[in-house]
Every structure is written in C-alpha cells, then in structure tokens.
Amino acid sequence: MIRRRFLALSCGWISSAAIAIAQHERPASSQLSNLSPQPTDEADIKLRIGAVTLELAPKRSIKTIAYNGQVPGPILSARLGKPVTVDVWNDTNDEDLVHWHGFHIPPDVDGSIEEGTPPVPPNGGRRRYAFTPGPAGTRWYHSHAMAGRNLKKGTYTGQFGLFVVEADGDPGAYDQEVPILLHEWEPRFTEQGALDVAFRYFSINGKMLGAGEPIRVQPSQRVLFRIVNASATLQHRLALPGHTFQVTALDGNPVPVPRHVPILEIGPGERVDAIVEMNRPGVWILGEVRTDWRTAGMGIAIEYAGQQGPPQWGRIGPFVWDYGLFGGTDTVPEPDERLTLVIRPTSDGHHWTINGKSYPRTAPIVVRANRRYRWILDNQSADNHPIHLHRHTFSWH
C-alpha cells in the first residue's frame, strides 16, 4: 500500500483498572518567550487565537473562539526529533495557553500554567513555543485555560486541532488518512448549582451530520482514521455500520495487539487510530451509537465512489469496550512502588475528590525519577473519569 496525505479539512495543512507508568527523560532543551518586539526569524507554525462565527449547518451558526479562524484548527505535522517553533498570538481579552497534548516536552512549553508555562497575554499578545516533537503518533493541541463555570472558555470552545508527529521509515500500510475530531456546542448546566453539562449540538470536523462534505473513498481502500475526542466532558461510542475498525494505536501509541472491533469508545482527550477496509459500497454514516447525539450532529457521511443518496445507518449489536483487548501477553515487571487514587463525588454532588480531597487542596503525589509506579484507579462514581498525566505514558495491565 502507498501512504497518502490526509483528506484535508477546509483550510488544509500547516507543515513542517491498574496502570503502570513510566517516566521519560526530559528533553535537553526548550524555549518559551514573550516576543516583543517582533522576532526577525519566522516560526515554523503560526497560530492566532480569536473569535469566530462557526456555521455548523445551514442557518445554524454559533460564536466561539478558535485557532486561525477555523474549527478544528489547522492540522499540524512535524518530523520526530526535528525542533519546531510555534508563534501564538492572542486576540481575545483573556490570557490563554496552548497545551501540546501527548507530547513528552518540558513543562515550560507543555501548556499548563500549574506546571510553569507562562500564558499567552491577551489583546494581541504573543508568545513563542520551541520544542522537539515526540513521541511519534497522533497528538493534538488545545486550550488549557481553566473554564470552571464559564462554558464559553477553554475546552468548551473551538480551540482544538490535530498534530501528527511523523517518524522516518514509517511504511504506512493504508491508502488514505482521515482526521475525525469530535466536539459539542452550546453547553448548559443541567440543573441549578450542579456541575453536569449538557450540549445542544454535536459535530465532526466542525460540521453537523449532513452539513459537511462526505469522506470519499474507493472500494478496497484501507483508510486510517485518526480520531480525537475534543469534548470537554463526554465519552463517545462510534460505529460505521457494515464495517469494522482495526485499532492500531491508542492515544497515539501503538497497541501491542491490533484488534478488529465494531465500536470505538473514546473518552475526552483520548485518541484512537483505526484502519477500516472499505468493502461495503454505499453511502454510510460514521457516527455516534446514541441516536439522540447522532441526530443532533455527531456523524459524518462516508461515500463510496459511484454511490449516491442519503447516508444510511444500520443496526449495531452490543459490544463491551475493553482496553485489555489490545494488550500483549508479555510478563509485566514488578513496579517499584504502588499507589491508589480513589475518585468520588462530594456529598453535595458539586465537587469531585481524589483520595478525599478536591483540587487544589489535593495532596501531591511524590515520585522519584526513573522508577515504575503501578496506580490503582478506584472510580467510586457512576461517571467515566479519563486520567491524563502530562509528559508520561500509561500502560494497561
């Protein structure tokens, strides 16, 4: 097979449960600077944060904040190990941060103010990020501004985009790459004083089902879908009736054992790389299994060459998602230490706790460099709780 470029979004490319955790060595150098006056050298990547009116569908537009005036933001790519510079301008009235999600880069450029990354100043402020991308795989970038109860800020906005780190010598056993970025719009609190959030509209690649261009494929093609759940709060289950997904990577990292599954389950911030063999000609919906979310926009048409008509949905049987399906059989080394994180809501239902305390009053987890830790995540609630630890990789056992 010949590896092909992505099916581009509207504005194209900018080139260039028990858990064991392994700590990675800090890269040798990084740089983040507030630029004034304008630098003489050109950055590899340029992003501008600003207000935008997004047309989700005809006669259905919303106002949000985005990168470079588009939702999703431009698809970014970089070579593994080749340093890049990113200039970010902020045209809003609030300071912001860009988090490079899934990268193993130093905290001063990672994009979290709690870990030492300075924000991008408001009202035309500018900051430069410089780092060496890695590891290879499907990464993404998004705002790391704390939203709190402001549902027009942070990950509730259109500030998200795909970032692919390419490795030399990757043969790419597929014919086409397709980005799939999930998001929801017009959030609201479900009841007075509660922290549960519901959404009115849903989208894939910034368009509601039926409003955007279809993904066009040829029979017998192998298509790699790079799927990002850019939701602020929701877990999604995706299916493509009549087809199966061969999961090859989770969160950008290759799985030990690729498996074929009928449904992908993906939490907020997670990524799934999955190859689909196009062997059922027609016009189909790739979309959310939940009917109400799919009809509210969470879907996109898959159109085979020579086929026409409205996209079709089909019966999807029951399936239990299990990360263990993709795990290997190798013996897991004993960890150096064990830790437990107990997640539960407070009695009033307004806050969450880890080991009995709410952030920022949670006790720090003290670890030592170059050691392996096995964490038991004990979720004592009825909600899913994806855990993301910046600059580290989890393995499931």
Give a written overview of the molecule.
A hairpin with a 6-residue loop joins strand 23 and strand 24 (352-354). The strands form 5 sheets. Strands 13-12-15-20-17-18 form a 6-stranded mixed β-sheet, with no helix packed on it. The chain has helices spanning 107-110, 291-295; strands spanning 13-14, 18-23, 31-34, 45-57, 60-67, 75-79, 84-90, 98-101, 125-131, 137-143, 160-166, 176-189, 197-204, 215-217, 222-229, 236-239, 245-250, 253-261, 263-266, 271-277, 283-288, 299-304, 337-345, 352-354, 372-379, 392-396. The protein folds into 3 domains: 24-166, Immunoglobulin-like; 176-326, Cupredoxins -  blue copper proteins (Immunoglobulin-like, Sandwich), CATH 2.60.40.420; 337-396, no CATH class. By secondary structure, the chain is mostly beta strands. The chain has 2 helices and 26 strands. Helices cover 2% and strands 43% of the residues.
Give a brief description.
With 397 residues, this protein is mainly beta. It has two helices and 26 strands. The protein is 2% helix and 43% strand.
Pick out its properties.
mainly beta; globular; Immunoglobulin-like; five-stranded mixed beta sheet; 2% helix; 3 domains; 397 residues
Order of helices and strands: EEEEEEEEHEEEEEEEEEEEEEHEEEEE
CATH class of the largest domain: Mainly Beta
Estimate the global geometry from the Cα principal axes. globular
Contiguous low-pLDDT stretches (5 residues minimum) are 1-37
Gap from first CA to last CA? 33 Å
Major sheet strand order:
13-12-15-20-17-18
Oligomer: single chain
Strand segment tally = 26
CATH topology (fold) name of the largest domain: Immunoglobulin-like
- Binned strand content: 35-45%
- CATH architect. name of the largest domain: Sandwich
Largest sheet: 6 strands, mixed
Overall mean pLDDT stands at 88
CA radius of gyration is 21 Å
Discrete helix count: 2
